[in-house]
Amino acid sequence: MTALRKGTGASPGLAAAPAYFIHQDHYTPKKLEAVNTTGEIQRFRSAVAQAQEEIEAIRVSTEQKLGADKAEIFEGHLMILEDPDFIDATEEKISDEGINAEYALHEVSTSFIELLQAMEDELLQGRAVDIKDVAGRIMSHLRGVPHLDLANMTEECIIIAEDLTPSDTAQLNLDVVRGFITEIGSRTSHSAIMARTLEIPAIVGVGSALRSLPADAFIAMDAEAGSIIINPSADELAAFQQQKQQYDTFKAELTKLKDQPTFSKDGKQVELAANIGKLEDVQRALDNGAEGIGLFRTEFLYMGRSSLPTEEEQYTSYKYVLEKMNGKPVVIRTLDIGGDKELPYMDLPKESNPFLGQRALRLCLDRQDIFRTQLRALLRASSHGNLKIMFPMIAVIEELLEAKKLLAEEQAKLADEGIAVADRIEVGMMVEIPSAAVSADLFAPEVDFFSIGTNDLIQYTMAADRMNETVSYLYQPWHPSILRLINMVIKAAKQEGKWVGMCGEMAGDTTAIPLLLGLGLDEFSMSAGAILQARQLVGELEQAEWAAYAEQALRIRSYEQVTAFVQQKRK
Amino acid sequence: MISQTFTILNPTGFHVRPAKTFVQAASAFPCKISVLNKGKKVNGKSSLSMLTLGIAMNEEVTLEIDGEQEAEAMKVLGDLLTQIHE
């Protein structure tokens, strides 16, 4: 019999093996009166000491197997064992209420678990597992029963459990465990994170449906799709194994590309960068092989708070990204607020047409106090890496010149104050308003680079609101009109020896990339997850050949025809 | 007793790692350290209690410190609250 179940893929990969069920019992101790509370406290302390010893051993072996940062989870567990609100509170409960250690521990740990599970943040909800893990271990010692041990498994299997604690996951014997499936949990739970580190497939949150399976069930799991086949037929299993092999080969190929530069088949080098909007995106960019940050949106610093961020706060954030990128280029865009992105504390007037109103640089030039603070923070951060500053929403050259003037003034002030600034900071502009695209040759002498923001450029060129579904058909990234604008920008930049990047969604699109490479784009900035595939694609393309195709595409009448043209030439 | 308010800059809020660093530093001081956020007040020497505050980026956190070395503790812990932790 074949049955199919769905869950959330928490760690990618495919695996097929017999199921191994872990049944966790939920022990709830009875409340008993303690005759000798001093003795109860002694018993509790010795259980804590034993747990401490075991966790320390797990910490050491995890550090050896997986490195110091993964072992940190267990440092956290050891800290719980020293937490006054946990340990001292349990002991006080024993003596104040005159009750048994098991019940006091149960009460204290449950109250923390419930508090954390009720939190909005998924990450914090997940931390309840840490307390369960630690409290469960102490409880086992109090009761004198053995704690679950997954280190000594000998048969090939896929583990099925209600949930796996961090210490369970860290001890999995990877020689035989092919993957695991849990009833609860999310992508951010420790066991999911651990599975990704161990690179074994994991599916979480499947519910209790698997509990009723026979003990000898055979499982084929595809953690990419989050699907589980129970007792596959011979044909299904053969197809699955083939799929698994393809996936493993594809994965290995992509991983090889991670630390490689990006070259077309005929040797033209381009830069593949990541767009980021939060500090934690930086690590993801590096993990996905980004050669730089092509767009760092700074709005997050201003949103979700009650007042403007200070210079010091901004400086700390910019410095963090620059240092983390370790000399790789980082393009930071100055504030793009206004329009549809509001800041309550700034009390901006309502506009009837916000996308055509006072947004981004227009607002910054009006509210120079805000702008100058950001420029100072950027300039100060520049000495910590390879910073490039980019101004958004420029329609006419006066705006660019004014922004550059303010930047120069702030730079001069810092020099007077004796504060270090990088010797050379590239200054560029986004091209997202058609007026800037068609007169790019007039802007080019005044900038070090252009970055084409296609999301807005398309919206303004087509006069179609992207969010309005009735006109969303006009969102046509490689429509000849857009390709022509892009072409004009690139040609104008090349004339002046400047480079051109693109930081809209189009830069990571596999239909657009061949055309953009053909038009001579230098830098492609996209969401991190798209980078490796883009690198593989560029490696398969002849730049010279696509230069000719792109020229032809400029003269094709419609979007559909361009799409078909690219597909045909790709074959 | 002294008290001061800080704004959290760390992108992921003040959760596991930052809280750990904070509690380790706080535990080294003899004074009583309370952390206030969103109307709740907890012991700054307990990482579990710190977690239950669910302190997010850009939120305000007030430290109330009472006892020996309170000024030093305020300096060290205030710096930790406004730092970006890896």
UniProtKB/TrEMBL annotation, chain A:
A molecular-function term among this protein's GO annotations: kinase activity
Domain Phosphotransferase system enzyme I N-terminal: 6-127
Superkingdom: Bacteria
Listed PANTHER family: PHOSPHOENOLPYRUVATE-PROTEIN PHOSPHOTRANSFERASE
EC numbers for this chain: 2.7.3.9
GO biological process: phosphoenolpyruvate-dependent sugar phosphotransferase system
Provenance organism: Paenibacillus algorifonticola
Transmembrane segments: none
Protein name: Phosphoenolpyruvate-protein phosphotransferase
Active-site annotation: H190, C503
Signal peptide segment: none
Entry keyword Iron-sulfur: no
InterPro entries documented for this protein: PEP-util_enz_mobile_dom, PEP-utilizing_PTS_enzyme, PEP_util_C, PEP_util_CS, Phosphohistidine_dom_sf, PTS_EI, PTS_EI-like, PTS_EIN
Gene3D superfamilies: Phosphoenolpyruvate-binding domains, Phosphohistidine domain, PtsI, HPr-binding domain
Keywords, comma-separated and alphabetical: Cytoplasm, Kinase, Magnesium, Metal-binding, Phosphotransferase system, Sugar transport, Transferase, Transport
Broad EC category: transferase
Domain PEP-utilising enzyme mobile intervals: 154-226
TrEMBL record, chain B:
Domain of life: Bacteria
HPr domain: residues covered: 1-86
PROSITE patterns for this protein: PTS_HPR_DOM (PS51350)
Main location: cytoplasm
Keyword Cytoplasm listed: yes
Keywords: Cytoplasm, Phosphotransferase system
Listed GO CC annotations: cytoplasm
Gene3D superfamilies for this protein: HPr-like
GO biological process: phosphoenolpyruvate-dependent sugar phosphotransferase system
Subcellular location: Cytoplasm
Protein's recorded name: Phosphocarrier protein
